[in-house]
Amino acid sequence: MRDFAATPAQLFRAHTDPGLFAQWVGPDRMTTRIDHWDARTGGSWRYASGDYWFHGSFHDVRPDRIVQTFTDESNPDGVALETLWFDDLGGGRTRLRTRALVESFEIRDAWLRSGMETGMNEGYAKLERMLIDGTV
């Protein structure tokens, strides 16, 4: 969960516009390249962050919620089902809530050991800067 000085529409756009998404997702030391991006219900996506490739499917895309799968291609058995909610707090503030469900504690622990949490935190810090400077 993270609160942003942004509207739900801004956060939704940051998560669905491939050009914006590539600017903020992932750790500071890596560049993201979009291979495929179709942010609609039934669509799919694939991108690389550094040398690491990820892909998934958009199951439900709407202004207040995104449901998607997430697969790290180096560990294809570790598929996550992710839900993101954009909660309008009023006054130009939005709470982003996320939930990722994985098959086992072993997969969850491997993701935590991989540094994905650091990459997420650094990515959201970049997104905050983009919101402040008006990029989003």
Helix content: 25-40%
The radius of gyration over CA amounts to 14 Å
Widest β-sheet, arrangement of strands: 1-7-6-5-4-3-2
| CATH homologous superfamily grouping | START domain
Give the second-level CATH assignment, the architecture: 2-Layer Sandwich
Briefly note the structural class of the backbone.
alpha+beta
CATH class descriptor: Alpha Beta
Description:
With 136 residues, the chain is an alpha+beta fold. It has a single domain, classed as 2-Layer Sandwich (Alpha-D-Glucose-1,6-Bisphosphate, Chain A, domain 4). 31% of the residues lie in helices and 40% in strands. It is built from 4 helices and 7 strands; from the N terminus they run E-H-H-E-E-E-E-E-E-H-H. Strands 1-7-6-5-4-3-2 form a 7-stranded antiparallel sheet. A hairpin with a 2-residue loop joins strand 3 and strand 4. Helix 1 crosses helix 2. The two termini are 20 Å apart.
